[in-house]
Amino acid sequence: MADLKARGEQPEYLFWVGCAGAFDDRYKKVVRAFVKILSHLKVSYAVLGKEETCTGDPARRAGNEMLFHMQAFRNIETFRRYNIQKILTICPHCYNTFKHEYPDLGGHYEVVHYAVLLEQMIREGKLNPDNKVFQGKRVAYHDPCYLGRANNIYEEPRSIIKAVGAELREMKRNNSFALCCGAGGAQMFKEAEKGDKEVFIERTEEAMETSAQVIATTCPFCMKMMTDGIKYKNKEEELKNYDIAELIALAL
Amino acid sequence: MTRQIIFAITLLITLGVFSFTTYRLFRFFQLTRSGFPVRNIGKRLQIMLSVSFGQTKIFRRPVIGFFHALVFWGFCVILVGSIEMVIDGVGGVEKSLHFPGTFYDVIMASGDIFAFLVGISIVLFLVRRVFLHIKRFEGVEMKKISHQDANVALTLILFLMISLQGMNMAYVELQTRTGGDILGVYPVSQVLSGMFVGLPAESLELFYHFFWWSHILLIFLFANILPYSKHFHVFMSVPNTFLTRLEPLGKLTNMEHVMHEVQLMLNPEAAPAAATSVAAVSRFGVKDIEDITWKNYFDSLTCTECGRCTSVCPANITGKRLSPRKIMMDIRARMKEKGSLLIKQGKSFDDKRSLIRDLISEEELWACTTCNACAMECPVNINQPTLIVDMRRYLVMEEASAPGMLKTMFNNIENNGAPWQFSSEDRLGWAKDLNIKIK
Predict the structure, then answer these.
(1) Which of A88, A164, A172, B359 could cysteine-pair with A13, CB 3.0–4.6 Å?
(2) Three-state secondary-structure class, residue B33
(3) pLDDT in tens, B173-214
(4) Which strands sit side by side in the sheet containing A240-243, from one edge to the other?
(5) What is each CA distance from B250 to A85, B64, B71, B244, in whole angstroms?
(6) Are residues B64 and B131 in the same domain?
(7) Burial of A235 (0-12, 13-18, 19+ CB in 10 A)
(8) Is the pLDDT of residue B380 over 90?
């Protein structure tokens, strides 16, 4: 972003990579798949790189309102400096925070979740994934809480799964009834409280009941949880975990 | 005349007790904090129409939801008949709302049919509660009293319906026998009145009056028992849907004074206006009953302990101690416990107990994933997650108390701008060796 500004250029989108995209080895691959699609689409975008910092979401949900505001203040300043109007996110938590929580703080942006953008591109015929690659593959879609219940985005990821030719399987609890992966509300960064079972195992079992070969997700935390679940169940051979961006990238 | 006087006295007693109850609740509400302003009336009416009168959320469980919808719609129609009975009772008249035309017939006919359907549904609910094991009705918070509470209310409703049906049956049979006009249409009672065929006219008359008085006295009793039980739900649900929190489920309430404080700290020149608007805040977040908003308390009074929230809670499903229903019940219980003492002894009253820890443990609060499944499921639009986060806010900002790993996460965000311990210098790691031009 800084380089573009130096050259006096303004990209259409700020692509917000998020912490998982920056630091989680598994999720870095998703980011790479996604930027591959962005290049394919010739979307004009830039990233903040070192200037990106946490949105404050996990701090806020863990009760640290002070830290949330400090992070938000820094981000809003950065966005103002680069005159950012449109933010493209992959993480539903970042999406939710920018879209619903920054406006109270004076940060008003058009926030786009990648599932919505990609679905739109497919619908408009700008993105044409090969529907043979996943032909006959059974894919179960896991709804992230912050995409589904929090933001009413249920259909777009599903139509992407269909667009790559896969057979969509629904878990017992799906759409607005979907079971959380267990990582929301800052749970990602702590041990689970005492109980009989980990939430991600319960959810993985539900995915296994559909006899799916792939669990598709649209959230870095959900991906981490599902990957752990598959490992825990020793099903790494039969059951894979992909982000919808990877599904498309594989079918390009 | 005697009948009118007796009726008027019972009515006055009923209204008197009810006013006392309302006043007591009003005083409790005065102890709470301000929440959001009630604006956007059009949207609120729309939500009330769909969620309350359309029963949209209860239908998320279609089978049992259908029977609840029958009971709700039945109550709405039967209410018209009850109002008529009150007017009749005071005025010493019969069928006072009767006007020639079909409208009265339709209302009375629906009331008669619904009395039967509601009765059937209530029997079903009772059988289900008493004989079947429904997991949703169990849990640490479901004490013996909670079950008794439910059974008493259901039994009362059952008797309300039986008396209404009996009254209609006796009325229809009596009018047919004496050749009088039947005002209104009573399809179910018409059929059932066959049971009364062999009875002498005097007994029928007696039956009619017995059922009439039982029905109205039960209504009076019901109205005054409800506010002291979980079935206060009957009064509170419709207004609670009107007062729904209109923000998206994913949005937490902004703490404006914290925002101003941070703005002031990070950029003193740009926010001079903020300094004056920072109101004195007694406490960050929610520790006890005086920290909740009026809406939190309204939610708790509306909760009828159906347990749909808890049955979809990922933490609860996997055996953790959190139960969103319990949070609502705890709010109600704590207000009952501390509210009256606060009123009597003044705001500084302290009973050395608090909502957090004495009623709700930290373990419960830290088990929440803020997934909003509970809020999505609640048939009367209660919002549990924002309250849970408000209690976390108290723990973190007032006591600096949080699970160790979350404290580490806070430190990481503060120092590295990420919840993990990685340097922001490495944020572009994903782009390494990528065959595209990074601008």
Answers:
(1) A88
(2) strand
(3) 999 998 889 999 999 999 999 899 888 989 999 999 999 999
(4) A167-169, A138-141, A214-217, A240-243
(5) 22, 29, 32, 15
(6) yes
(7) middle
(8) yes
Per-residue b/e over B352-372, b at no fewer than 16 CB within 10 Å? Answer: eebbbeebbebebbbbbbbbb
Contacts of B254 in chain A (CB under 8 A): 101, 104-105
Which tokens in the block code for residue B218? 């039960």
| Contact yes or no for B239/B297 (Cβ under 8 A) | no
User: Is B217 found in the same domain as B290?
Assistant: no
Q: What is the pLDDT of residue A82?
A: 95
The one-letter amino acid code at A191 reads: E
Report DSSP letters for B390-414, one per residue: HHHHIIIIIH----HHHHHHHHHHH
Residue B43 within any structural domain of the chain = yes
Domain that holds residue B23: 2-242
CB contacts of B409 in chain A (<8 Å) are: 58-59, 62, 186, 189-190
Q: Which residue of A has its CA nearest to B400?
A: A64
For residue B255, the chain A residues in CB contact (below 8 A) are 65
**CA distances (Å), origin B104, targets A4, A73, B116, B127:** 75, 63, 19, 34
Domains, chain A, with CATH or none? 2-117 (3.40.50), 129-250 (3.40.50)
At A112 the three-state DSSP class reads: strand
Q: Give A14's contacts in chain B (Cβ within 8 Å).
A: none
For residues B286-309, average pLDDT: 97
Q: How far apart are CA A190 and CA A165, in angstroms?
A: 38
Q: Are residues B112 and B166 in the same domain?
A: yes
Residue B49 domain-assigned (yes or no): yes
What single-letter amino acid sits at A160? I
Residue A61 to residue B252, Cβ atoms within 8 A:
yes
B63 and B182 together in one domain: yes
A interface mutation test: which of B263, B264, B318, B398 has the most A CBs within 10 A? B318
Interface confidence, given as ipTM, is 0.95
Q: Name the domain boundary from B242, B258, B273.
A: B242
Per DSSP (E only), the strands in A120-244 are 138-141, 167-169, 214-217, 240-243
Q: Is the pLDDT of residue B436 over 60?
A: no
In the numeric block, which tokens belong to residue A40?
């394919």
Taking CB atoms and an 8 Å cutoff, what residues of chain A touch B274?
A: none
Q: Are the Cβ atoms of A73 and B267 closer than 8 angstroms?
A: yes
What is the count of structural domains for chain B?
2
Q: Which of B59, B3, B33, B116 is nearest to B291 (CA)?
A: B33
- CB atoms A71 and B417 under 8 Å: yes
Residue B220: give its domain's CATH number: 1.20.950
User: B265 to chain A: nearest residue by CA?
Assistant: A70
* Contact across the interface for B373 and A179, Cβ inside 8 Å: yes
In a domain, B340, yes or no: yes
Give CA separation, B320 vs A199, B365, B369, in Å: 10, 10, 12
- Distance from the Cα of B339 to chain A's closest Cα (Å) equals 26
Q: Note whether B183 and B298 are same-domain residues.
A: no
The amino acid at residue B219 is: I
- Enter the tokens of residue B397: 């900002």
